[in-house]
Every structure is written in C-alpha cells, then in structure tokens.
Design a protein that fits this description.
It is a single chain. This protein has ten helices and ten strands. It has about 270 residues and is an alpha/beta fold. Helix 2 links the parallel strand 4 and strand 5. Helix 1 packs across helix 2 and helix 1 packs parallel to helix 9.
Length: about 270
C-alpha cells in the first residue's frame, strides 16, 4: 500500500468510502475490506453509520493501530462547545478512544472559521484525534483555514475524478503541504462506459475504475471509492502493480469538463 504524507500524517492511498452504506451491509463491507488489505476507512457523522464502521473494524481482526480512521463533523456542530461534544459522540459510536483524522465536512459561513478551527485543534490536543483537516474547501477557504488553524491541517477532502478538473485546489493543497483526498473518485460509476478509460484499460488489462484510481494515486492523491459489492472491493485496491505513462495520464486528465461536478448542494461554496 502506498501512503500520501502530509504534516505528519501517513494516509493510505486507497481507502473505503462509506457514504450511503448502512446497517449490517456497512459492517460486512468494512470487515471484508480490511481483510482484503484496506487500511483506511472514511465515515462521517451525517452518514449515520459510525457504529457499523466500528463494528466492522473490530470484526475484521485487524489491529486498530494499523487502520487509518477518518470521520467528519457536520456543519451544525461547528460552534466550539458543540464541536467537541459531537466528536466525543462520534468516538462513542465508533467505540474508539480516538480517530486518526477529523474533518470539517463542509464550510459553514454562519460560524466564524477561526472559532471552529480553534475547537478542532483543541480536540486534537485533547487526544480525540491524531490529525485534523477540512473537506469541500475552495482555494480561498484553504488559504484562510491554514492561516487560522492553531494546529497543522493535513488534508482537504474533495470530489475528484477524471471529469472534474481540480488543478487549482490541488495546487493550493501542494503549496500548504496538505494532502488531497478524493471522494467519488470513479464518478459514481459514470466511468464504466468511458471509451478512453476502456482503451487504456485494455493495454494494462485493467478496468476503467482501476485506471481511474491509478490516475489519482499517481498524482499523490488518496482516493476513497465506495462500494457495497465485495468483488469491487478487490478490484479497487489492485492498482499498485502497474503504472500509467505520461501520455495516458494526460489522456485521462483531458476528460474533464465544466459540468463534471456531481456533488453540489445549495449550501456549497462558490467553487473554483
């Protein structure tokens, strides 16, 4: 397994996203993923599956210290006292003494960012999390967050796949030593029928999804594909024994389009 390193954190390059996974299915997928070699789990308060993610982790038999666990604070818990309480509640649900990374799930302009980041840093100093970071932050918000945070931020988790150009956000993360973690890295399955990815896949005897994930990893980006299908779990992690050429990387990057974004809520920031 490759790692993406940033400000003291070593984030496994491929993780399991758990959005929309619930109940016994979630616990089973987490358990199976860890048995297949995954060492990075991503959940969030708003997914309402932290308990099941913890259950899957324990059922796997994999040592807790060998797994990088991320959760995210929802925007209605950004007031300082509320943030600390909600992180502790996440730990109770996960049945863990600490997680490896806590992220602010989305920007929230209704609470001063300095206050929220102060509370996030305090959660780290209390030992509730080893690292802190942000998610869905734009270039301008990354600049603000880095300047305001009392503790180093280790990543910005954003939507990133071949159809969405994230050059500006990637450059801002690089400039400040932040890792980029890609959610929806296979564009929620849209890439399955892509001719370019299929052509490159035939050369390497790989699926479009594997080409997509390899493209991300070769940019030093961590990816957290989500699947509830056990056969896909194996496919998504078997990307470390081949390499895309510079030309192939460029061909995949050229698939980006202005309307490539899949996740865009009314409360989202003004994207770069």
């Amino acid at each position: 397994m490759l790692f993406v390193k940033a400000n003291g954190a070593s984030i496994p390059a491929i993780g399991l996203g758990t959005w929309e996974l619930s109940g016994r299915t979630c616990a089973r997928v987490v358990e199976q993923a860890l048995r297949l070699g995954y060492r990075h789990l991503d959940t969030a308060q708003v997914y309402e599956n932290e308990r099941e993610v913890g259950d899957g982790l324990r059922a796997s038999g994999v040592r807790r210290d060998d797994v990088f666990v991320t959760t995210k604070v929802w925007t209605n818990h950004f007031a300082p006292n509320d943030l600390e309480r909600s992180v502790k509640e996440s730990l109770v649900r996960l049945r863990l003494p600490a997680v490896d990374l806590v992220l602010l799930h989305w920007p929230n302009s209704h609470v001063p960012l300095a206050e929220t980041l102060g509370a996030l840093a305090h959660a780290k100093r209390m030992g509730l999390t080893r690292h802190i970071g942000v998610s869905n932050f734009t270039v301008a918000l990354i600049e603000q967050a880095v300047a305001l945070s009392p503790e180093p931020l280790v990543c910005n988790q954003v939507e990133y796949h071949p159809y969405l150009d994230q050059t500006k956000v990637r450059a801002a993360c690089d400039q400040h030593g932040l890792a980029l973690v890609a959610y929806s890295p296979i564009a929620r399955g849209r890439i399955k029928a892509d001719r370019t990815l299929a052509e490159i896949g035939r050369i390497h005897r790989r699926t479009p999804a594997q080409i997509c994930l390899r493209w991300l990893v070769q940019q030093d980006v961590a990816a957290i594909p989500r699947t509830s299908r056990l056969e896909r779990l194996s496919e998504n992690i078997e990307i470390f024994d081949f390499e895309l050429s510079d030309d192939e990387m460029a061909r995949v990057s050229a698939l980006a389009s202005p309307n490539g974004r899949l996740t865009d809520f009314g409360f989202a920031p003004k994207w770069d």
